[in-house]
Design a protein that fits this description.
By secondary structure, the chain is mostly helical. The chain has four helices and no strands. The mean pLDDT is 83.
Length: 93
C-alpha cells in the first residue's frame, strides 16, 4: 500500500505509541509549531529537539526559531536527494 509521505530520503519509523495522545501532550506553542511544520514530525522528536534548544537558548521564542532552522536543514538535506537540490517550498540544498 502506498503511503502519504511521498518521496523522501529521510528515515521513517513506526511508533508503538498513540501519536494523537503524544501530540496532545505537547505544550501549546509546540502544537502550533508542529501544525504548521513542513515535515511530518513525531511528537517525541519535536519535544526532544525543543527541550534541547530551550536548554541552549533559555528562551522559548529562540527555541522555536532553532526548530525552524533544524527543519530547514533537514529539508535541504532531503532536497538534495529527492528534488535535485530544490524543495518545492523553495528551500535549497
Amino acid at each position: 500500500m502506498a503511503s502519504n509521505r511521498g518521496r523522501t530520503s529521510l528515515k521513517c519509523r513506526r511508533s508503538a505509541r498513540n501519536p494523537m495522545r503524544d501530540f496532545d501532550s505537547l505544550p501549546p506553542e509546540l502544537r502550533r509549531w508542529v501544525a504548521s511544520a513542513m515535515l511530518p514530525w513525531r511528537a517525541a522528536t519535536v519535544r526532544t529537539a525543543y527541550e534541547r534548544a530551550l536548554e541552549n537558548t533559555g528562551d522559548p521564542t529562540q527555541a522555536l526559531e532553532a526548530l525552524d532552522e533544524l527543519q530547514r536543514r533537514l529539508i535541504a538535506k532531503d532536497a538534495a536527494n529527492v528534488w535535485d537540490g530544490v524543495h518545492p517550498s523553495g528551500c535549497a540544498a
